[in-house]
Design a protein that fits this description.
mainly alpha, 3-stranded antiparallel β-sheet, 5 strands, elongated
């Protein structure tokens, strides 16, 4: 390079004083090449062989320092300096990376809060930490695995892409950005539940039963059956349960007969022992406490108290119906 000693050029010490970057760091940047070019190139050298820098070196150093303070690695800094990528592009990428890092830190904090008040062993702590850190793609794989196991191969509304499967997918919650200890616990429990082979098998039997029942029914029959459950069977069973009525007592059996008669009329079915036996078999197959647990956990994670509060009485009401029907005939 041309040998210049004018006032427009800076020694490495002057450059350090002007930018606040230590001399040893400037020397490192001058000696370090990325893709064949130094991060900071001296403009020239003095007659004594010392490096001299121009105002471009000042600007490059300031940019390097800013990007490094933000956690940008040197190869990426070099790409910015070589104009292979813009500062805006780098900023967006690192903002997203920082956001992901912050989320992981918050999850770890929430896990530690749970561990601080619960007597878990190391295996449980490791499992909790691993499940809590699942990213969105991994969460989707977990949910897809459950839906495939439950609805795969079924036709119509009961199939994997059917209406009920879509409802299940839509309500499956995301863990909040700043989850509470209770939400972390609920998330880990929910993931473990939908990966439990026995629960998947029970859910599959429910889905198959629903698909077979739907295939045997006309649209009108199916609609009437759904309306009869929603308008009569569900609310009246819940009322009897909340009233504390013993399902196997004489009064409980009488109440069950009245409920069954009104339900049968609404559903367009005969009020008979055979109809009640079919209803009992259907309820026994479709009632499992873990389904209630599923909706309770979904409500807690998604901060939907209506799901969390409604799941328990609905399940208990179905248990009341099963006991009452078993005692009737």
């Amino acid at each position: 390079m041309e040998d210049r000693t004018t006032d427009s050029l800076l020694t490495i010490g002057q450059l350090s004083q002007l930018t606040g970057v230590p001399v040893r760091t400037i020397r490192f940047y001058s000696d370090t090449e990325v893709d064949g070019a130094p991060l900071v190139r001296p403009f020239s050298r003095s007659r004594a062989g010392y490096r001299l820098y121009d105002v471009e070196a000042v600007a490059r150093l300031e940019l390097i320092r800013t990007l490094r303070d933000l956690g940008v690695d040197l190869p990426t800094v070099a790409r910015v300096l070589a104009r292979k990528v813009t500062v805006a592009e780098v900023a967006r990428a690192h903002a997203e990376a920082l956001e992901a890092t912050v989320k992981v830190i918050r999850l770890r904090q929430a896990v530690l809060r749970v561990v601080a008040v619960r007597d878990y062993d190391w295996k449980e702590i490791e499992l909790m930490n691993r499940l809590a850190k699942l990213d969105s793609a991994e969460r989707k794989r977990v949910l897809d695995g459950y839906l495939d196991g439950v609805f795969g191969g079924l036709a119509g509304d009961e199939g994997r892409d059917g209406q009920f499967a879509q409802i299940m997918r839509s309500v499956f919650p995301e863990l909040p950005e700043e989850p509470s200890a209770e939400q972390v616990e609920a998330w880990v429990e929910l993931v473990a539940l939908i990966q439990d082979e026995d629960f998947v098998a029970v859910s599959r039997r429910m889905a198959e039963h629903g698909a077979q029942k739907r295939a045997r029914s006309s649209d009108e029959e199916w609609q009437r059956d759904q309306e009869a459950f929603a308008a009569v069977l569900g609310p009246q069973a819940e009322a009897a349960y909340r009233a504390g009525l013993d399902p196997v007592s004489e009064q409980g059996r009488a109440r069950m007969l009245a409920i069954a008669a009104e339900w049968a009329e609404r559903a367009g079915k005969p009020d008979s022992a055979r109809t009640r036996a079919d209803l009992l078999a259907n309820l026994e197959l479709m009632t499992d406490r873990r389904v209630n647990t599923f909706w309770r956990l979904v409500g807690r994670i998604g901060d939907r108290p209506e799901l969390e509060s409604q799941s328990a009485p609905l399940f208990e009401s179905m248990e009341w119906l099963i006991k009452a029907l078993s005692a009737v005939d």
